[in-house]
């Protein structure tokens, strides 16, 4: 068997791209504020356009305190006006019962909760300890299940914390297993400050995989140090088939100083095409949506693929 064949066999035939741009990408985008009332229309149009590209999961808003994240205060309007496709999950971030109720009222067909592997980060982000945050989620998960709504979990700081330093892999594994045992169908493991490298990612995933199945794991890499695609390649070699990414590489975290945006969806699609891994997404269509969004926001895309394709003859 050739080396090429061995490499191909170590990779999945297909992956799911979980698009987080309309929520995680835009929530901290400073240029969104210049649009004023037009920002809501931009979000609705963006989600409608993304729905035409072949995506199956689009994180479309967040039902959180408008004082904490004012850019998501219009999520109810967004959910009420998007043109839904029956084969797409339109998800919402719902950190508490009030948020879940709002998501149910606008027929979000998936919700997400979030916590961290770091006590300090959790306190700064949601003003609770890790244990307290998990306790809060019990009723959210239970009521979501009563309404037949699947629940996903975000787990941040799986490699490093901006306050506490390196995160022990065993700690990641234990919290991830707890979230699955509580009823989450999947845990998205977030390299919040983008410091991960393939070996550290492999060490962490190997530990997590001893507790939960690969299909219940997603990866969520920020690209602060330019390692996101390498980390995704490593994760796929270890059986991970759900990748979080954001259109144009938008994103960041207000509680992680210096963290850049999420890995760009365009770059993930291009990587997968080159590896013969199916995503179901039309790269040309998606990149046009990305370029239009960046023009509307008056920003330069962080996606290398979008930049390269914009200058093709």
Write a structural description.
The chain is α/β, with parallel strands linked by helices. It has one domain. Helix content is 43%, strand content 15%. The strands form two sheets. It has an eight-stranded parallel β-barrel, surrounded by eight helices. The termini are far apart. The model has no long low-confidence stretch (mean pLDDT 94).
**What's the number of domains?**
1
Kindly name the structural category: alpha/beta
The run of helices and strands is: HEHHEHEHEHHEEEHEHEHEHHH
In whole angstroms, the N-to-C terminal distance is 40 Å
Taking pLDDT < 50 over at least 5 consecutive residues as the criterion, the unreliable ranges are: none
Helix content: 40-55%
Largest sheet: 8 strands, parallel, barrel
The global form is globular
Strand content: 15-25%
DSSP strand count: 10
Mean pLDDT value: 94
Distinct helical segment count:
13
Lateral strand order in the biggest sheet: 1-2-3-4-5-8-9-10
Rg on CA atoms, Å: 18 Å
């Amino acid at each position: 068997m050739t080396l090429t064949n061995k490499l191909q066999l170590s990779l999945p035939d297909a992956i799911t791209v979980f698009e987080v741009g309309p929520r995680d990408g835009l929530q901290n985008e400073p240029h969104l504020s210049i649009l004023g009332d037009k920002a809501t229309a931009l979000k609705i149009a963006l989600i409608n356009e993304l729905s035409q590209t072949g995506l199956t999961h689009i994180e479309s808003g967040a039902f959180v305190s408008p004082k904490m994240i004012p850019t998501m205060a219009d999520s109810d309007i967004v959910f009420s006006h998007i043109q839904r496709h029956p084969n797409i999950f339109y998800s919402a971030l719902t950190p508490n019962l009030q948020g879940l109720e709002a998501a149910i009222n606008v027929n979000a067909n998936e919700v997400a909760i979030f916590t961290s592997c770091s006590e300090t980060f959790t306190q700064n982000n949601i003003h609770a300890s890790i244990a307290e945050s998990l306790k809060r989620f019990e009723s959210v998960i239970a009521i979501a299940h009563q309404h037949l709504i699947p629940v996903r979990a975000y787990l941040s700081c799986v490699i490093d914390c901006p306050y506490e330093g390196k995160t022990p892999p065993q700690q990641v594994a234990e919290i991830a297993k707890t979230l699955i045992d509580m009823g989450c169908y999947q845990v998205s493991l977030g390299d919040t400050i983008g410091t991960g490298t393939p070996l550290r990612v492999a060490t962490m995933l190997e530990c997590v995989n001893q507790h939960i199945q690969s299909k219940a794991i997603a990866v969520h890499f920020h690209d602060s140090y330019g390692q996101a695609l390498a980390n995704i390649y490593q994760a796929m070699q270890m059986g991970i088939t759900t990748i979080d990414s954001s259109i144009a590489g938008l994103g960041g975290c207000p509680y992680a100083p210096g963290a850049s945006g999420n890995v760009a969806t365009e770059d993930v699609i291009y990587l997968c095409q080159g590896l013969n891994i199916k995503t179901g997404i039309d790269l040309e269509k998606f990149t046009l949506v990305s370029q239009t969004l960046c023009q509307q926001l008056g920003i330069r895309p962080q996606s290398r693929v979008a930049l390269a394709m914009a200058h093709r003859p």
